Amino acid sequence: xxxxxxxxxxxxxxxxxxxxxxxxxxxxxxxxxxxxxxxxxxxxxxxxxxxxxxxxxxxxxxxxxxxxxxxxxxxxxxxxxxxxxxxxxxxxxxxxxxxxxxxxxxxxxxxxxxxxxxxxxxxxxxxxxxxxxxxxxxxxxxxxxxxxxxxxxxxxxxxxxxxxxxxxxxxxxxxxxxxxxxxxxxxxxxxxxxxxxxxxxxxxxxxxxxxxxxxxxxxxxxxxxxxxxxxxxxxxxxxxxxxxxxxxxxxxxxxxxxxxxxxxxxxxxxxxxxxxxxxxxxxxxxxxxxxxxxxxxxxxxxxxxxxxxxxxxxxxxxxxxxxxxxxxxxxxxxxxxxxxxxxxxxxxxxxxxxxxxxxxxxxxxxxxxxxxxxxxxxxxxxxxxxxxxxxxxxxxxxxxxxxxxxxxxxxxxxxxxxxxxxxxxxxxxxxxxxxxxxxxxxxxxxxxxxxxxxxxxxxxxxxxxxxxxxxxxxxxxxxxxxxxxxxx
Length: 488
Known about the structure:
The protein contains 19 helices and 20 strands. With 488 residues, it is an alpha/beta fold. It folds into three domains: 9-109, Rossmann fold (3-Layer(aba) Sandwich), CATH 3.40.50.720; 114-335, Mur-like, catalytic domain (UDP-N-acetylmuramoyl-L-alanine:D-glutamate ligase), CATH 3.40.1190.10; 344-487, Protein-Tyrosine Phosphatase, Chain A (Alpha-Beta Complex). The longest helix has 18 residues, at 470-487.
C-alpha cells in the first residue's frame, strides 16, 4: 500500500489502507461507504448509530463498534492500528480519540479532505467554491449554486448542508461546480484544498465552547482563503474578514473581491440605491458598474433585510468570479426561495407580524435579524454555547417592546435583560413541560405585542435543550401562531 501522500486520486491504490471512521451520521456513513468502495479496510466507531446504517455496514462487510463500547479509545481501535482517521467534524480536537490519534501520529481528516483527493472519479472534474461565516453561509451557498446553475453549469450545493460531498464526488455524471459550505469544525481539520473561489461572510462570537477562544475560532474561519485560485471574497463591513484574507496564502493571481450592502468601490459588489451593482468583473471598473438586479428582484426571495442583501452580494461575487453573467444571476435571484426558519414570515394578524428566524442560533445571526425590524417582541433563549448575550441585548434594547425568555439557560438571558433593557417587560417561560414551551411563549408574546410590532423568534441559542433541532423549534412556533390566530 502506498503512503498517504501518494493517495491524491480516485485512481490511486487505496486498497488495504486501514481507516478508522469516527461517527455514523449521514456524513460518517458516506465516508465508510466510499472507503469500502475504494477497497480500504474500515472500522467505524459511533456512540450514536442509526440501526439502518449498521445494517448496511454489515452488508458491506465493514466492521463497527457502536453504543457505549465506542466511547473513549476502544480496544478494537487500538488493535486495528489505523493508518488514517476520518472523523465527524463535530468531534472536539481535545476528545480522547483525537488526542490518541495525535499521540500515535495518525493523520486525522474529515470527509472534505477525502473528497478533494477523490474529485477525479469522473471525467468531469468539478471546480470548488467554498463558503464559511458565522451567519448566512447556507443561504449564500444555495444562492451561489443557483446562480452558477442558471449560467448553464451542473452544480451541487454540499459540505455542511444537503447531500454529503462524497456522494457528489461519486455521482456518475459529475459536476461543473461544487459549492461547498464549510463549518469552523470542518475547517479546523481540513488540510489543503484549492478552491476556484472562496468567501468568508462575517465573523462574530460562536462555538467558543468548541474552539476555546474567539481568536482560535476566527483564525480557523480564515483557513477558507488558503490556496484560493481566482477570487477570495471578503466583507467590506467586517474588517476581520479582510485582515484574515490579507494574511492568507492564496495562489498568485487570485483577486480580492469585496461585498457589502453599501455603494461598491472598484473590485466590489454592492448596492447603489436599490440596484445590485458589479464593479469587480468588468474592464472599466474604476468608472463603470454593471447592473445585476434590483430590490424588486431580491424581494422575490423573501423579506428584504440587510442580511439578505449581503448574502445576495456575496453569492453574486462568487458566481461572477466563475463566469456567470448578470442576466443569469438576476434570473436565479428571481426564482430563489429561502429555506424555512430564516427570517420567514409566518403570519400578519391585526397589524402584528410573526417572524420565524429559528435558524438564528448565535448572537451574530440574531443581531442581523433584530436590526431588520423597528419594534420587536423578542422570543429568545436556549443553549448559549458559551457566548455572552449581554452586548446583543444592550445594542437592541431601544427597539424591544418586550421579551419572552425560554430555554435551559434562561437566567443568563434574564440577567442581561435586567442589566441592559431595564424598562422592557419580560416574561419567563419556565419550561417544565417542553411540549408546551412554544405555545406558552407565543401566547405571552401576543400579550406584549401591539399593532405595528414584530414578534420575532430569534433565539440566539441552540435548540436541543427543549426541541429536536432549530427546525422543530420553528415549526412549533409557526403551529402555535396559527393556533393562536385561529382562536382569535
